[in-house]
Amino acid sequence: MEKCSNKRLMVLILPQNEMFGFLILSLIPLALGVQISDGPPPVWQKALMARYIIRTTGYVSIATISVQDEIKGYPFATIKSISDGPADNSTGNVYLYMSDMELSQQDLEKDNRCTILASLAEVGYCESKNYDPQDPRCAKAIMSGRLVKVNNETSEYEFARNALLEKHPAMKSWPTDHGFFVSKLDIELIEVLDFFGGISKVSKEDYFNANPDSQVEDNVLYDRIDIIDVQMV
To answer: Would the pTM of this model clear 0.85, i.e. be above it?
Structure first.
């Protein structure tokens, strides 16, 4: 990379091979920084992508191990609203508003292991790109761990509850006799699928260190790209 007058120049040596050429050319818009401020981060920033998905989406699918007599031991899936913090404070923690009356919570009382999945299909990004929800480019964050109740006498409980009510105002009118409480996913495994080539694992350290609110500043932007064709021997 050559710098001139504080501008960034990327020189790409492009092999005369259709497959490699397509891959490199498909990444040029990302290298140039052609990205709207509220769009997802580059696909190589997996931890940031996971944080962005959890931050941006409002609900997840959650899979538990059923205790229902007819399907005891089978996976059971449902939808839950989430928040990872108020609008000005993304934490990466996944908070849910639960009730003992819900089937999934009854499962979790017996075995609190679960897996959640959040997808950018929820927020219209994939539709805008003509990506089917199953398309790998329709980014997904998948997290497995144990769902634990947050102590309602702690500051974390108030923080999480307020964050949930801010993101989901309808919760304020939910029946008080349903005994809603705040739970948090104690994350054990984080996986991201956002491009071709298979799923990627993200460490908890990288995940919590990533900051979705500063993703644009973290991206490297180039002012010009020069492409050189070479013959592969």
So the answer is: no
Q: How many residues does the chain have?
A: 233
Chain centroid to CA 101: how far?
28
148-179 b/e with 16+ CB inside 10 Å = b? eebeeeeebbebbbebbbebbeeeeeeeeeee
How many alpha carbons lie under 13 Å from residue 19 in its C-beta half-sphere? Answer: 1
Confidence of residue 45 (pLDDT cuts 50, 70, 90): very high
DSSP state letter for 20: H
Buried b (16+ CB within 10 A) or exposed e, 88-117: eebbbbbbbbbeeeeebbbbbeeebebbbb
What is the rounded CA–CA span in Å between residue 37 and residue 218? 12
Q: Print burial letters for 13-44: b (CB count within 10 Å at least 16), e (below 16).
A: eeeeeeeeeeebeeeeebbeeebeeeebbbbe
In angstroms, the CA 187 to CA 91 distance is 13
Q: What pLDDT is recorded for position 21?
A: 47
